């Protein structure tokens, strides 16, 4: 894992990057993959986060996936997932991270971690040895954001809805009409609206879930948006097929697994696992140091990092991308509460030559199952 300076990134000076913020990726993997249309032989740059989506890119047979992040803890987690895929069986992988429980001591998380540990970098090994409780309790739930959802699920949600109501919500086989009726009559009660307004407020999420500094450029309200997006996720989409919703409400995926944990995808990722490179860097520093002579980057999975930048910093990052990308390169990223688009009314000439794929973005966003993002952006560099 290569270390680069990170001072040039705006967010680096405002947030704490010493612990795992996200132990799972909360951006819909299938939307990202369908947007980027990765071809065999492509070079992909991906924000690591929890590693899930960076690993998923490997299933498309690219020549290389470069996962970068400012937070060393997120990179150690990504490294652990990569080495577990490389050296463990599918069943062992699920048990190591706490996605599946077993009474077999040979499938205990501590035992499995000890199998993977020799293949980790010294820094990653030391990090997890210093966080043994996360291994014992299940690494999948160890991130700050996941603990935030655990407070919601275990402490507050039972005050509003019974276990029976949650089970009925996630019961498969209901028609659109049945889902709509259930949502209006039994789920979206005044108590649940109050819970949304308080627990998912910008202030509470900033304190318990994300980071206050991540909301620096936010001017809108998350609860106001969530009231509509939750209805879409629970009515227009089938909640019984939504792994992200299942984890939030039940603390596990059950049989509805996210992309990287589905067995057929795990096997494809495993075949290409040596094509993953992990580097500590901001986007800006990575692009600045990326050799002009190296293969141009074809695909960019940028998570929601532009949410944390000023408009000027965002534009500067796009300009850097333009110097290191291939013609026709595709950029995929998410907006939660801050709107970022290369093409805007303030930039009608779009000197960067990065064009919006508006129809595709709109269609992909409708399929998004992580309901707290207000927008999905797909853009393409002019050929």
Describe the structure.
- It is a single chain.
- This protein is of the alpha/beta class.
- It has 18 helices and 8 strands.
- It has helices at 29-36, 52-57, 72-87, 90-96, 109-116, 122-129, 132-137, 144-156, 163-169, 176-187, 190-199, 202-209, 222-236, 243-250, 263-271, 283-289, 311-324, 358-367, and strands at 2-3, 43-47, 64-69, 276-280, 297-301, 325-335, 354-356, 375-381.
- An 8-stranded mixed beta sheet has the order 1-4-3-2-5-6-8-7.
- Helix 11 packs across helix 13.
- The longest helix is centred in the N-terminal third of the chain and has 16 residues, at 72-87.
- The chain is globular and about 60 Å long.
- The two termini are 33 Å apart.
- The model is unreliable at 2-8 (pLDDT under 50).
Topology (elements, then pairings):
Blueprint: E1 2-3, H1 29-36, E2 43-47, H2 52-57, E3 64-69, H3 72-87, H4 90-96, H5 109-116, H6 122-129, H7 132-137, H8 144-156, H9 163-169, H10 176-187, H11 190-199, H12 202-209, H13 222-236, H14 243-250, H15 263-271, E4 276-280, H16 283-289, E5 297-301, H17 311-324, E6 325-335, E7 354-356, H18 358-367, E8 375-381
Parallel strand pairs: 1-4, 2-3, 2-5, 3-4, 5-6
Antiparallel strand pairs: 6-8, 7-8
Helix pairs in contact: 3-6, 4-5, 10-13, 11-13, 16-17
Quick overview of this protein structure:
The protein is 45% helix and 11% strand. The chain has helices at residues 29-36, 52-57, 72-87, 90-96, 109-116, 122-129, 132-137, 144-156, 163-169, 176-187, 190-199, 202-209, 222-236, 243-250, 263-271, 283-289, 311-324, 358-367, and strands at 2-3, 43-47, 64-69, 276-280, 297-301, 325-335, 354-356, 375-381.
């Amino acid at each position: 894992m290569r270390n680069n300076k990170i001072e040039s990134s705006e967010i680096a000076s405002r947030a704490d990057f010493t612990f795992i913020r996200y132990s799972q990726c909360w951006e819909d993997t299938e939307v990202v993959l369908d947007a980027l249309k990765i071809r065999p032989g492509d070079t992909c740059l991906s924000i690591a986060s929890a590693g899930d989506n960076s690993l998923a890119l490997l299933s498309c047979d690219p020549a290389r996936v470069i996962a970068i992040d400012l937070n060393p803890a997120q990179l150690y987690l990504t490294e652990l997932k990569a080495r577990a895929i490389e050296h463990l069986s599918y069943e062992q992988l699920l048990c190591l991270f706490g996605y599946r429980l077993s009474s077999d001591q040979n499938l205990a998380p501590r035992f499995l971690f000890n199998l993977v540990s020799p293949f980790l970098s010294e820094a990653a090994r030391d990090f997890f040895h210093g966080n043994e409780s996360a291994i014992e309790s299940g690494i999948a739930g160890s991130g700050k954001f996941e603990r935030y959802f655990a407070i919601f699920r275990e402490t507050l949600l039972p005050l509003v809805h019974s276990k029976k109501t949650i089970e009925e919500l996630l019961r498969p086989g209901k028609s659109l009409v049945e889902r709509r009726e259930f949502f209006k009559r039994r789920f979206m009660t005044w108590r649940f609206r109050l819970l949304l307004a308080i627990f998912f407020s910008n202030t509470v999420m900033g304190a318990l879930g994300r980071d206050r500094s991540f909301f620096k450029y936010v001017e809108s309200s998350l609860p106001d948006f969530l009231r509509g997006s939750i209805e879409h996720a629970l009515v227009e989409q089938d909640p019984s097929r939504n792994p992200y919703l299942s984890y939030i409400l039940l603390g596990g995926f059950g049989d509805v697994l996210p992309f990287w944990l589905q067995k057929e995808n795990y096997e494809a990722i495993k075949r290409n696992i040596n094509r993953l490179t992990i580097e500590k860097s901001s986007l800006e520093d990575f692009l600045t140091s990326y050799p002009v002579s190296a293969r141009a980057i074809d695909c960019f999975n940028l998570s929601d990092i532009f949410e944390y930048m000023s408009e000027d910093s965002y534009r500067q990052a796009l300009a850097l991308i333009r110097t290191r990308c291939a013609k026709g390169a595709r950029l995929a990223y998410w907006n939660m509460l801050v709107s970022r688009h290369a093409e805007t009314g303030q930039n009608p000439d779009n000197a960067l030559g990065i064009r919006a794929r508006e129809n595709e973005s709109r269609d992909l966003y409708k399929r998004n199952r992580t309901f707290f993002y207000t927008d999905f952006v797909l853009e393409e560099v002019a050929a």
